[in-house]
Amino acid sequence: MTMILADPLFAPDLPEPEHWERHYPPRELPAGAKVTRLGPSPTGFVHIGGIYTAMVDQDVAHRSGGRYLVRIEDTDQAREVEGAIEQFASAFRYFGLAPDEEEGRGDYGPYRQSRRAAIYQSFARELLREGKAYLCFATVDELARSRRAQENAHVPTGYYGRWAIWRDATDEQVRAKLAEGAPYVVRFRSPGVPGRRVEFTDAIRGALEADDNYNDVVLLKSGNSSERLPTYHFAHAVDDHLMRVNLVIRGEEWLPSVPMHLQLFAALGFEPPGYAHIALLMKPIPGGKRKLSKRKDPEASVDFYIDAGYPASAVLYYLRGLANGSLAELPLPEALAAPIKLTDLGGAGPLIDQVKLEDISADYIATMTGEQILAALRTWAAGHDPQVAAVLDAEPDLALAALAVERDGVANPRKDLRKWSDFRTAYGFFFAPLFTLVRPGDPQLGNLPAELVRAFASDFVDGYQDLADPGEWFGQIRELATKHGFAASAKEYKQAPDAYPGSIREASQLIRVALTGSTRSPDLASVARVLGPAEVIRRVCALTA
Ligand code: GLU
């Protein structure tokens, strides 16, 4: 296509490619520095795989003295989801993966593709002038028909060969269509021929070979001239070149597009970047594994981890272990500090294991002090559980005392917190506003006769002493148990079950349920000390009603 035909399709003041080359000069970075980027599309919420990739992007960039940027790939505006961009930003922040450059911050912006329309158009016009691209007026119907014909003929679908009906159109044909005002797209004139193979190197997978591309892919979509947006492929080549990205780390679903992308870089006269295609995270299913699916698996969404309150370090440690198996062998601080090796990522998708993550997270939280836990909890609760936030704000000392039970000064701290949302279940009972008094007849009290429960509770309240020594504190229950005819040990009770209402075990369970609302709790004497005598009496009193 001649310049005479190409230029009037674009705004007269559209800059030449050299303008952009000057505007985005090569970066001054140390030799070997990697510039990486994540290109999320705001068509949905961030997938945990996005965090996984961002983690690799950031690690590789920073360790090499390079830069890591986030570019919002929003050229599919019909599919854009409200609020997605803000959600990306807060998810990256949560995981400490805020980029070095992003929209509003950095010299290579705009970092939103929808704001870079003029840039793509400059390069598309240049390709049209050079005959490396052409206008295609094929209608949706025509394309569908040719697709059906290809399927019937069992040949690859696409716009190539005799199906590429506008590839060799004459200037007259093009002029006539333009005069009609017919809509068009700009297509790449692929230099590929069917049957040819290309070789390239992937930083994760090594030397690869693939069928070359011979499809005349769309570069610019249809639309008003100044608003025409690029396809992913064209934007990838233009943006990664101008943003001076030299290592494209992206999902393996893009691997088959590499030959086409290399053609685009060559046609544009750009040096191609390095590529690293990351295997997708997988979910184990009976007899195999499948892609973690945003639609089917709640754990695919980053919100799942943030809403439940998994500490970012635990999740990152887990993800690092998936990226490089050897990092899973290291303790958390060392693993977070050690580099991720692309060559150790492997081509097979790692399996997401929720149970493993929970264990890692519980172990991690067990290394934190009460103060650290409280601080993290408050941050989480402020956004996710206003009631918990309110009790933590109102009674931070009670929270610290509760967290200290079987945590402070013990060799094996409790592992009852795997994520911050567990606090409500595990520690909520310490706080009166989160606790429901247990009444006689509560199934957790077991089968003890109602009269006995009442009498036992009433005696307990009458003589209750707030004793510091756990043994002495427990002695109160022991004494009452004997008085009310409970067996002194579970063994004795078992030997003569009809002789007793239960053993000391059942008697203490009574008090445990009254104080904690549950048949399982941390050390009861410590719980009682934290609650204080007034609250202990109020709770046990509820059983006498
Ligand atoms: N917007 C693309 C995606 O979400 C980015 C792929 C890439 O990193 O190049 O899949």
Q: Could you tell me which ligands this complex binds, including any ions or cofactors? A: glutamic acid
Helix content: 40-55%
User: Which structural class best describes the helix and strand composition?
Assistant: mainly alpha
Mean pLDDT: 95
Radius of gyration: 33 Å
- What is the CATH C level class of the domain at 3-15 and 117-278, in words? Alpha Beta
Supply the key terms.
mainly alpha, 545 residues, 3-stranded antiparallel β-sheet, Arc Repressor Mutant, subunit A, single chain, binds glutamic acid, Rossmann fold, two-stranded parallel sheet, 24 helices
Helix-strand blueprint:
Blueprint (H helix, E strand, L loop, with lengths): L2 H4 L10 H7 L11 E4 L9 H16 L3 E4 L13 H11 L22 H13 L3 E4 L3 H13 L18 H10 L4 E4 L8 E6 L3 E6 L6 E3 L11 H11 L4 E5 L6 H11 L5 E5 L3 E4 L2 E4 L10 H7 L3 H12 L1 H4 L3 H6 L16 H13 L3 H15 L1 H9 L1 H9 L17 H6 L22 H14 L6 H14 L6 H6 L8 H13 L7 H8 L1 H9 L4
Parallel strand pairs: 1-2, 8-9
Antiparallel strand pairs: 3-4, 4-7, 5-6, 10-11
The site of glutamic acid has 8 residues, from strand 8.
